[in-house]
Amino acid sequence: MKMQTVVNVRTCIDERPLGRFQFIVAALCALIVFLDGFDTQAIGYVAPAIIKELGVSRAALSPVFSASLVGLMFGALIGGPVADRFGRRPVILGGLVCFGLLSLLTVLANSIGSLLALRLLTGLGLGCVMPNAIALTSEYAPARVRSTTVMVMTCGFSLGAALGGLAAAVLIKDFGWRSVFIAGGVAPLVCAIAVWRYLPESVRFLVVNDGDKQRIDNIMGKIAPELAAQNVSFVVDEEKETKSPVKQLFADKRARLTAVLWLVFFMNLMDLYFLSNWLPTVINDAGIPVSDAALIASMLQIGGTVGTLALGRIFDKVPPFFALGAIYLLAAVFIVGVGFSTASTPALIVSIFGAGFCVIGGQIGANSLAARCYPTAIRATGVGWALGIGRIGSVIGPAIGGMMLSMHFDMAHLFMIAAIPVLIAGLGALTIGLSSHGRQLSE
Question: Which of 158, 154, 125, 174 is nearest to 41 (CA)?
Answer without folding.
Answer: 158
